[in-house]
Amino acid sequence: MMLVLRYTLWAALAVSVGMCQPRERGRHIVYINHNNYPSLLYINSASGGSTSMNTRADTSDIIQLILYPAEQDSKRSRSAVAVLGGGVEGTIYFTQENPPIGTTRIEGEINNLTPGLHGFHIHMFGDLSDGCISAGGHYNPYMRNHGGPEHRDRHVGDLGNIEADQFGRALVNMTDPLVSLVGPRSIVGRSVVVHVGEDDLGMGGDAGSLKTGNAGGRAGCGVIGYA
Ligand SMILES: *[C@@H]1O[C@H](CO)[C@@H](O)[C@H](O)[C@H]1NC(C)=O
Ligand SMILES: [Cu+2]
Ligand SMILES: [Zn+2]
């Protein structure tokens, strides 16, 4: 579970102590991610001081409190792009309409694949100095097991499979609730990797399945940068 607190320190105190009244007028918004999925806590610091909370708390989770500077443009939508090479050819675009917790749309096309399913992930590093291998393992900031994109237990980087047609072309169009282009879960500066084989989404029943999905070698990769 992650708690992202923005705006003034006064709002921070009000939330953590639960009593201080924020001095500044206006709405303070606290972003909370419970169980991998975003929910919102609104705090209205204006005279009425209405508070609403919509969360699925799991008290066993670790809470991370992050203070952001109140940038004027902190809620503007972001885009990023990755150009894939290393055996395949393709471009993947990322768009996040409501950062830092809004879902991210991931769309594009990858060519030169073998027909069928291919594991598709965000890997930790944007380092391709030794080809796709130096991109490291799956991006996994919460130290979870490997899983599928719909699973609660998954790496942030686990985007499942993409499917190439008989011409080796895969069209990608998905949205993901964990992938973000800003903040503590940002994937910018990391890599997209497409694998030679299919990702078993953690259901393979062996140790490798819970680590990598047994998706095999790396067919191609690209560094994710802001666009
Ligand atoms: C992806 O799907 C969304 C929603 O169905 C659609 O609006 C968008 O145009 C699609 N993108 C591509 C590249 O096909
Ligand atoms: Cu991978
Ligand atoms: Zn994974």
TrEMBL record:
Pfam families: Sod_Cu. Residues 1-20 form the signal peptide. InterPro entries: SOD-like_Cu/Zn_dom_sf, SOD_Cu/Zn_/chaperone, SOD_Cu/Zn_BS, SOD_Cu_Zn_dom. The keyword Oxidoreductase applies. It catalyses: 2 superoxide + 2 H(+) = H2O2 + O2. Residues 88-224 form the Superoxide dismutase copper/zinc binding domain. Its EC number is 1.15.1.1. It is an enzyme of class 1 (oxidoreductase). SUPFAM superfamilies: Cu,Zn superoxide dismutase-like (SSF49329). Binds 1 copper ion per subunit. GO terms for molecular function: copper ion binding; superoxide dismutase activity. Keywords: Antioxidant, Copper, Disulfide bond, Metal-binding, Oxidoreductase, Signal, Zinc. Its cofactor is Cu cation; Zn(2+). Destroys radicals which are normally produced within the cells and which are toxic to biological systems. Belongs to the Cu-Zn superoxide dismutase family. This is Superoxide dismutase [Cu-Zn]. It comes from Rimicaris exoculata. The gene is RESOD.
